[in-house]
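#data-curation
PF: Archiving a pair of folding outputs for the training set. Convention for this channel: one message per protein, sequence first, structure tokens after, nothing in between. First:
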Amino acid sequence: MCESEGINYNQKLWQQIQSTEIPGTRYEESKKLIPRLIWWGYSGDQVFAMLRDKYGADFPSTTLWSTIRWAEREITPRSLSGSGYDDYLRKHKRRKSTFGRFGVSVEEKPKKKTINLDRLLSVDSVFRLEEIDFFEASPIRLGEPEKDQFLLLEQLYQSGDRIAITGSYTSPDIVKSREEWLSHLENYKAPESNQGSWIYLNPITPTYGDYINGDNIESFRYLLIDGDDLPKEDQLQILGYYIPNIACIVDTANREYHACIKVDVSNKDEYIQTADKLFSWFEGLGFDPQTKGHLCKGRMPHVHRKDPGKGIDGWQRLIYLNPDPEPDVIFPMEGGLKS
């Protein structure tokens, strides 16, 4: 594959490769550029050849290779041919912006309340976040994807918690204790199907049926937000710069990320009050209010989700994990947020 093949589909990316970087900015720039090239389908050797001369002789080859190897582990290359690329363009086509850089659409749902994010942000120009930034900011280091299910259960739940997981829209929910699931995952994966896999974010009561209902929630610990109505790249900006108390973020292998917010309240009534208060804000940011119930289910990581009817073929992936999130955002901005 020649250097310009495929990349010319994205002229901005091709211009970045051809530009000369300023010493002092090269490492940060390479962390953004390398995952994009791997995503486009270039091999590690091809990426190294493209970028070696670009960054100059004083930029260590070992640093370049380290970032390339990380990207090869974490990024699933996409096809550049035929309808695969056309589907990508349709899924990622930016909608008309009503709050500047975040591009949140109100054309599809004109009655939805919106918040002017440009007014709330304290700086004129915000550094665009990508998944690699969340990987690096994660207090729990994320390495081999096959260990992500174990890490999620180990870090977000306590000894004795009963956790429900389901592998399809119709199959019964499977409930095990945290310790039983951790033992299970030493040799097997969690229940899954081509539809994916889900975990009930809040622990389950000692008594339950084949299908978990609202009366089966014992601890009111987490709340789910789902950005299905937002452009996917803009969800990362809002989650990183604007939402506090995030315990984990999972790429659903579709149009959105699932973010688990730690609320840790005492009972159902307090949970409802907290969820209503938060979603009066979250809904204005474009998040789906249908996920605010205490029976919320998030996507399990390291599951290959395949739904040809919806054009879905990808991995549910864990990109951030923090069992003790601070009441602050992941990436605080200088000066904070304007009221």
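PF: Second:
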Amino acid sequence: MKNILVLTDSRTHTGTESLFPLVRELVSRDDMTLWVADRAHPDNEPFFRACAGLDFGLQAVKADSGFDFGFQTTMKAVPFPLGKADGVWIRLDHPVPDDFLSSLRTFFTEKPIVNDPQGLIRTASKAHLIEIAQALPGMAPYLTPMKLCHTADDIVLFRDTHPDMVLKGLRGYGGKDVVRFRQPPHKTDIYTLEEAEIFMKARDGVLAVPYLDPPGGQSDKRIVVCDGVTLGAVSRMPREGDWRAKISIGASVQSAVPTPAEQDMVFLLDPWLRAMGIFLYGIDTLADNEDGRVLSEVNTLNVGMIRFIETHTGRPVIRDCAFLLARRLLGA
């Protein structure tokens, strides 16, 4: 029986978090025990801030078949010595300091970690799309123009060719830190170059991309891959009058299937990501202005929408994902 340590943060959880059914599926196995360490627990703060207190371990709950939303108040945390862990599953949202991830890999040198901390350091920023464009020429048909911006001049230069643009905070997640910059502005937009510069500087840079307005309307599609297997997809449709496909502000979720173009994206990206130790990830795609599909984002840190994919496809996606996760966490 192996001990798997799950690192998460209850402060960012919702009732639809796929962490809960995945953990319940994993604890039903007879070859692993799951211990869940919550970043929100005050005794765990030094560890999650700087990997301090490695000699003392963490406060963690032993997951069981009742593990669910609100576990931090219904289950008692007990001391868990870090040396007891046989594998680690990272399930955190930003902010996750690079120093913490580096220290995690140093401490668990020979242990399987999903996803590998060094791979997360490379892929957790939106600037990773720039690296994809440079390293994978085959992805060119599936990428829009983009520019990493650190100054107002950078934004102006991109606006010369793309007057309607989206600015993305480099470490935002869940649709956060994304604004539209256009003229004339809408009430959900930023209005001036000065506002764009303030937004950018508060985030140590932004990734600028064109706003896409396809003839058939926009939809944001999430495709989830685990250990080389495409588990499925869903589309997120913006609410009427908005362009942002964020569930938290009223976007709806619909069943979807990966297109041939999206299957090709996974084919090209998967070997590259696996070489970094990235085995569980989600890719987000958008319809381009010619009704094709382009890559919008690669999510490797806290991959969501797995539960929605199961709900909307009727397939046992949670079970399949848990099986593939277990294979990696057990070092198989």
